Structure formats: C-alpha cells, structure tokens
Amino acid sequence: MEPFLRKRLAFLAFFWDKIWPVGAPDDGVLGLPDPEAGAEPEPPAAEPRSSPAPAQLFRALYDFTARCADELSVSRGDRLYGLKEEGGYIFARRLSGPPRAGLVPITHLAKATPETLLDQPWYFSGISRAQAQQMLLSPANGPGAFLIRPSESSRGHYSLSVRAQASVRHYRICTAANGLYLQKGRLFPSLEELLAYYKANWKLIHNPLLQPCVPQQPLLQDGWERPRSEFALRRKLGEGYFGEVWEGLWLDSTPVAVKVIKSAYVKLADLTKEIQTLKSLRHERLIRLHAVCSAGEPVYIVTELMRKGNLQAFLGSPEGRALGLSLLLGFACHVAEGMSYLEERRIVHRDLAARNVLVGDDLGCKVADFGLARLLKEDIYSPSSGSKIPVKWTAPEAANYRVYSQKSDVWSFGVLLYEVFTYGQCPYEGLSNHETLQQVTWGYRLPRPASCPAEVYALMLECWRSSPEERPAFAALQETLDAARRRLHPALT
C-alpha cells in the first residue's frame, strides 16, 4: 500500500513520511549505487523508458491570498513547483516555508528559468563527472562535500556527487513527470527539498552531505589560458610518457601541436609551476608555447607545429638519410644552443633525446618537453618500472639514484650526438636497459659512428665522464661544435 500511495499521491510525501518514517522497511533502496561502486546507476526499470520532461518551476509575480481550502496563498517572489494545470490555475507546491500545495491563478505565476539553480552553492552546471571528481578531491574540500550537476549520460536528469574520504560517489537523480527522485518511491518537487531530505537521512545513501563543494580555481587565469573548444585535434603525431601529441587547428585557422597530458601519469598539482616556467622561456631553439587548457581534464599544452616531426624519426627517413655532415653538425649546434639557454636559467630537461627535438620546414631544430619529466609520478619514471625510464639516454647517477642536474643533461646530449651521427640509430642496440646500465657503470662507452668527425666524438666522450663535475657545460659544447662546423665547412663562416 505504501508504494502505491507514495506514487499516486506524491504531493503528500510529507504526510506519508509521518505515517511511514524513514526507519520503516520499504522498497526505496532501488536506484542506489553499490556503496563501493563509482558508476552512476541507471534509472529504475519501473520508470518510463522515454526521457521525462524536466521539472517545471514557477515564480510568484504577485501576492495571492487563498479564498478556499483548495487554494494556496503565495507572496511575490515565492518559488513553486507546478504539479499540473487545471483551467486557469496551476496546482503547485510551495518550495519555501511549510510544505503546502494548492491552486494558484496562472496569471500570478511566471515560469522560472533553469538559471535559478545557479544561485545555489551546490549546483554546478556545465561540468563533467571527471571535473566534479577533481574538484571534490581537491584540498579545499573534505569528506561530506557534495554537488549536483546535470547528468552527462541522461538529458534532463541530474547527478549528486559526494566525497567519501579519498573517493567520490555518484548518485543518479531522475526527473519524472511529477517530481524528482533518487530512490524509487521518494518523490520531491525540487532539488532543494531532495537535498534537505537526504541531509537529514544520509544513511540511506551511506554518505553524509555536510557542505557544498568549494569551487576549484583554474590553474591559470591569464591570456595563455584558452577554452578547449578553440582547438580541433586533426591527426595523431605520436605518444610518449606524458600523453599524446596531435596536429590540430586553433580557431580553425592556425596549425598547432597539442600535447594531451595523461592525468593518470602526471602530477597535476605541480603543473601550474611548470607551465609558468614554459611561459617565461623565449629562445629560437626552444619550442614556442602558444596556449594551455588547464581547467579540467585532459590538460592541453599547445605549441607551434614543427612539420618534419621529431629529429629521431626525421633522421631515419629518406630525406634525413640524404643529409650531409654540415647539416648534421647544424642539428647538434641548434640543440646545444637551446640547452645552453636552459642551462643559464638553471632548467634541467631530464629527458633530452632526439625524440624530444623537433624539426621545422627550414631544417631548424628546437628542443621540446623541457622540464616536463619532473611532473611524472614517481612510480612511472623510476628504475623500478623498467622500460619506463629512458635508461639508454640517462646518466648513471640519475638512473641509479635519481640525481638529475644540468650535468646529467650533458650526458644525455652525448647520446643525442650519437643518434644524430648514426641517422637516428638506437643507442646500445641489442642491450637491455639493465645490461646498458651495467656496462656503462663498468666503463663501456658507445663507439664512434662512421660519419662522426673525431673531434665531435671526443666531445661525446667528455659528456660521458663518470664524474658529473668533469663534464663540460653546454655553453662550452655549443662553442666547440660551432667552431668544428666552421672549420670543416669554411663556406658557412
């Protein structure tokens, strides 16, 4: 009998709750998620399959005094939930004050726009499930923080997201023709009344609703921050430790490269500082930052597009293999120049390799991904994770003890020189990461490539000295390589 009366006479929900209190057995738990599950449950099977119309809210334009028991007195500005229309009247339930329902002349009411929800501190429009989760798990919020948002999967419905310790639970709020419900059999005329009920009876959803979610400020709030909608991803260029790289268009006109950051691998909390560093760097031998999209996920880092791709792949292509010694030395000089600029500003790259150097149409090289390696979570970028750390490019002190410095970048530059003069060949070919580290520790060094001048190979060996303090600075490497290029090709002076 209880479910029948609750369903047929939903506007008397307050009365039914008095007769059948919360502690009494009922079938209202249907539609709740498993407390251990994170997925939003589907609406109960008993409800209509078609999407019901959203709840209709009204606002009183004028005062109205009831003239009989069937009518409802309202004051100007009152908000009401319209249950049905009867001739020139709306049978409505008042949302403020004692919960009462009755007839109000339609001439005294105006439809309330959905934007009225925006006045509520717990309502967040236009955010995704992932964004809600990120905000609720931010330091500004604790267990019991909650918000309501439009459902992503079901138009016209809502989702209640609640923080429970270190996780977030999501509950579907369904919109029916005569109310809103989170549990089958418990209808409410508004989100406000639904929230008030579950705040008082939070055990029904296994999570208390203590305070509205504190909004998370975007990581960046300046001219560099752009909406994700401005960028169209056209063609995937590659994938690495940090995420995917796409060729895209900015505002349908400007070709750009978009690095889509993998939030699962990157420490997003440190991203703000790193992006600020990227914005402060200006050099013709460093990849130029155009914009960032850091509000929500995934994070985009948008840079200039270098059409010939990364140096390692380019050197292995037919065009790259046809290049002579002069251009190979030019590539080495370009990278040394860019790294010298980073060295002056005490920026450690941590992942210098030919794959992280990009080539333009003019065959100019630019260093990319500088500083991003520090954002990787420790379990991804560590010796214990095997192939995840680029051991064959990493200095022994960095591979063994995670001691990164400008001198560990110099070691990596020596390996990059080997890549350049072998036309993109993988260093230590045939050796595993473990064998490479073992051999290098015992004193083994890569042999001189056939196309490499003796004085350039001497520089490689200097880069690979066991003691970091004995390795040359990038400024000295740049000067020596420039001198070698001029000496071997006097026409370039």
UniProtKB/TrEMBL annotation:
Its EC number is 2.7.10.2. This is Tyrosine-protein kinase. It is found in: Cytoplasm. It comes from the Eukaryota. It holds the Pfam family SH3_9. Keywords: ATP-binding, Cytoplasm, Kinase, Nucleotide-binding, Phosphoprotein, SH2 domain, SH3 domain, Transferase, Tyrosine-protein kinase. It catalyses: L-tyrosyl-[protein] + ATP = O-phospho-L-tyrosyl-[protein] + ADP + H(+). ATP binds at residue 259. The gene is SRMS. Non-receptor tyrosine-protein kinase which phosphorylates DOK1 on tyrosine residues. Also phosphorylates KHDRBS1/SAM68 and VIM on tyrosine residues. Phosphorylation of KHDRBS1 is EGF-dependent. Phosphorylates OTUB1, promoting deubiquitination of RPTOR. One of its GO terms (cellular component) is cytoplasm. Belongs to the protein kinase superfamily. Tyr protein kinase family. It comes from Puma concolor (Mountain lion). Residues 122-213 form the SH2 domain. It is an enzyme of class 2 (transferase). The lineage of its organism: Eukaryota, Metazoa, Chordata, Craniata, Vertebrata.
